[in-house]
Amino acid sequence: MKKDITAIEDIQLLVDTFYDKAVKDPQLGHIFNDVAKVNWEHHLPIMYKFWASVLLGETGYTGNPMDAHFRLNEKIPLTHEAFNSWKNIFMETVDEFFEGPTANEAKKKAVSIADLMFYKIHNYDQSAGVNIGKVRRD
Ligand code: HEM
């Protein structure tokens, strides 16, 4: 029986393993390595805080994920295929190590944030300069 996600160490294992796979993925690798040229020492602690806030209710993440990906999408279009790979790798990594209510929540949240992100990015009306996809789902 695998354990559930309960502590920051679990989040770190999930995030570290996810990015190990993502940087090698044909859909995603070049985005992290060549386009964003991610500084991992900077990015990984942000991602630990992000997922700790989503899954463990911790405070500490203060960024804006939607804005970050809007900016990224201006450098390289974030396609449906790229989002599918992102979601598949995330699901696979959760299932590799964890099971339980929080593990399920992690998968549900990842998919809903990814789908909302894709929707917002692709419903941005360039000509009007407004984001017609800005809908509240809460
Ligand atoms: C095609 C899908 C995606 C790609 C290629 C992608 C790529 C990236 C890149 C390159 C960064 C910037 C790293 C840096 O600081 O240099 C970033 C930041 C981030 N990503 Fe993604 N991402 C994707 C989807 C997602 C999804 C679905 C989520 C959430 C469920 C997410 C959460 C975040 C967060 C929280 C940050 C940090 C933003 C901040 O600076 O506060 N990403 N992503």
Could you characterize what this model shows?
By secondary structure, the chain is mainly α. 65% of the residues lie in helices and 3% in strands. The chain contains 6 helices and 2 strands; from the N terminus they run ααααααββ. Strands 1-2 form a two-stranded antiparallel sheet. α1 crosses α5 (80-97). The chain starts with 7 loop residues before the first helix and ends in a 7-residue tail after the last strand. Mean pLDDT is 92; it is low at 134-138. The site of protoporphyrin IX containing FE has 21 residues, from α2, α3, α4, α5 and α6.
Assess the beta-strand content as a share of residues.
under 5%
Spatial gap, N to C terminus? 34 Å
Mean pLDDT: 92
Describe the global form: globular
- Determine the number of helices (DSSP H or I, runs of at least 4 residues): 6
**Strands, total number:** 2
Question: What is the annotated CATH architecture?
Answer: Orthogonal Bundle
Portion of residues in helices?
55-70%
Determine the CATH topology: Globin-like
- Catalogue the ligands: protoporphyrin IX containing FE
Oligomer state equals single chain
CATH homologous group name: Globins
The arrangement of helices and strands along the chain is HHHHHHEE
Biggest sheet details:
2 strands, antiparallel
Protein name: Group III truncated hemoglobin
Binding site for heme: 43
Organism: Pedobacter aquae
Keywords: Heme, Iron, Metal-binding, Transport
